[in-house]
Write a structure and sequence with these properties.
It contains three helices and 16 strands. It has an eight-stranded antiparallel beta barrel with strand order 9-10-11-12-13-14-15-16. A five-stranded mixed sheet has the order 2-8-7-5-4. Strands 1-3-6 form a three-stranded antiparallel sheet. The longest helix is centred in the N-terminal third of the chain and has 29 residues. It is mostly beta strands. It is flat, with a radius of gyration of 32 Å.
Length: about 290
């Protein structure tokens, strides 16, 4: 047995409290030194990121703002950026634009987080050219070469006086004077402009009823449309109590009336069901969550 070995028979007497107190002091000192170092690096610009300083206030200017398919467009981008590490240019990123309806613009340059950029900020401007080949809306997103998000916008492509909708109707709409009724629209605004709507109303007995709005055609200018109002029926249905309604296949789809949509703005519209013996009108606004 090693004569220098001395077992600790009473471990409870070991000064753990002093050890913990010393560790706390050490951790506090390390944190203080680290905070001071980071503050010094930021103050001297050594920790200023070119991407971080360049992500503010990116603006887009689409010229012309709206045009027909096949017309060349300019996307003019402007963003404040540190003079010492400005982008070297901006390019369109190849991709399946027709499928995703989205363009990506990449700002190239050296955007290392440890790059010293300097304190002088200037307005960096660049123009990217694109020619949309189909009517509809095309999203545009701008990022740096290291993946930092800068901003996004939309290119509107439609012929002057064309028969595409001017607004995207997707969402929920209601008339404040008849709260509890309303409409829901699903709109292929950025693609083929197909619009499908559901109109929730009540019958003479106060029982909920709904109609569908289909086959809409927009007029020149895209602010008025006419389509068909349908009543979908499933006949007699046996549902589990206490439910009086349940999902089952439809047995008939009955045309009920013509329907007219007049857009009064992006968030307000007048919906009218037209029959030879009368009309049903609702002045609706968009539900914005």
């Amino acid at each position: 047995m090693n004569p220098s070995y001395r077992p600790v028979h009473n471990i409870a007497r070991f000064p753990f409290s002093r050890l913990l107190a010393g560790l706390r002091v050490l951790a506090h000192n390390v944190a203080t030194v680290a905070a001071t170092l980071v503050a010094t690096l930021v103050a001297t610009g050594a920790l200023n990121s070119a991407a971080a300083q360049g992500t503010r206030d990116l603006t887009f200017d689409i010229v012309p703002a709206t045009a027909a398919a096949g017309v060349a467009r300019q996307i003019r981008l402007s963003v404040p950026w540190p003079l010492g590490c400005a982008p070297t240019g901006a390019v369109l990123v190849p991709g399946d634009v027709a499928r995703h309806r989205m363009l990506s613009i990449r700002f190239d340059g050296e955007f290392d987080s440890l790059t010293r950029c300097g304190d002088i900020i200037f307005n960096y401007q660049v123009t990217v050219n694109v020619t949309p080949q189909a009517e509809g809306d095309l999203g545009v997103i701008a990022v740096t070469s290291n993946g930092t998000y800068l901003g996004q916008t939309t290119i509107h492509t439609r012929a002057a006086g064309g028969n595409r909708s001017r607004y995207d109707l997707t969402g929920m709409w209601y008339d404040p004077s008849t709260y509890g009724s309303g409409l829901t629209f699903v709109h292929g605004f950025a693609r083929n402009d197909t619009l499908f709507g559901t109109w929730y109303v009540y019958d003479a007995q106060g029982v909920p009823r709904w109609y569908t709005i289909q086959y809409l055609q927009w007029n020149a200018g895209g602010t008025e449309a006419v389509g068909q109002l349908f009543w979908t029926n499933a006949g007699a249905v046996q549902c589990l109590a206490p439910f009086t309604g349940c999902p089952v296949p439809a047995t008939s789809v009955v045309p009920m009336a013509l329907v007219s949509i007049v857009m009064l703005g992006p968030n307000s519209a007048r919906i009218t069901a037209l029959k030879p013996d009368g009309a049903l009108t609702a002045n609706v606004i968009r539900s914005i969550f």
